[in-house]
Write a structure and sequence with these properties.
The protein starts with 10 loop residues before the first strand and ends with a helix. The protein has a 6-stranded parallel sheet with strand order 1-8-5-4-2-3, with helices on both faces. A two-stranded antiparallel sheet has the order 6-7. The chain contains 16 helices and 8 strands. The protein is of the alpha/beta class and 392 residues long.
Length: 392
Amino acid sequence: MKNFTHCVPTRFVFGRGVENEVGGLIREMGGTKVLIHYGGGSAVRSGLIDRVKASIESAGLSCVCLGGVKPNPRDTKVYEGIELVRREKVDFILAVGGGSVIDSSKAIAHGSCYDGDFWDFWCGKAKPERTMPFGAVLTMAAAGSESSNSCVITQESTLTKRGLRSELNRPRFAVMNPELAMSLPPYQIACGATDILAHIMERYFTCETEVDLTDRLCEGAMTAIIRAARIAVKHPDSYDAQAQLMWGSTIAHNDTLGIGRVQDWGSHQIEHELSALYDVAHGAGLAVVFPAWMRYHMDKNPMRFAQFAVRVYNCEMNFEHPEETALRGIEAHEAFLREIGMPLTLKELGARTEDIPKLAAKTKKTNPDGTTGGVFHMTPTDIEAILRIADR
């Protein structure tokens, strides 16, 4: 196990009706004027925004609102939010929504405390040194942004999607009522579950050997998410299934399951180019990319992939040919994704074969040698090969 420092300062408030507590939480943390940031009209139509406003006002605070965040959140909305925060003298930001809304709120919080262009943080020109306090009311289990140190934004003019990791990205609190996810369509629930699993799998497929504790935590979490997803896509009103997914999304991406391990994240970098170019749901893109990534790399560490097959999908171990077990596990994962309604090919996403070289070339280089991925260092040629596996 590698050395690590792990701190999750986010306060979690979980259960039925807890969105009515946000006013007191914000007041406790020093907020006086709040920006309520949200996505589409569903948060308004459901009455959630009104309940949040009432809680804020009953705590003696004032608020302004900014809606319109889209999936794969755009820099244009962030700029709009920064301008509003400064004009209205806002001192606390409250995200009401899923990962896209929370990420947009993080970017607004950082940009409001910076004299330059907030995109400097996402393109590597600068690092955020301070931020405005922000919290979240979670409405969808998926990205884990409610307590993660990551934030992903798309630059609309160039269709460039980039992530920023910083401890400043962790919200002060996350208010989590599984009932708020019950109105989601099955496809969105499935996309969220796929995203949660991918966050765990990026950590699970490590080159570290003596990490049995976090291996078992990862495997248990994946097994629980798979079971809950199967229930939730058929019965969105299942509180217990939605609760499993909502807490699963949190622990999947706040690094509770990844400490002491080398992590990869190459699949996410590849998918970012797909969702930037085609504006597909992040989970759907990962459903296409991750199995192709697994097929491409399984021969490099067949026992790790075979362990996944046996412990997560109950495949029978072939000790003489572990690569066969590894392949059975990938096939079982693909079957699960298909079962919950996820795409498995680039064509199903609407992606074009002729775009593959451009997607591979544009994928973010995460290593000093110009490769991508923490475990399997991929060149653009490797990435193109993975995309061609997905182009079936």
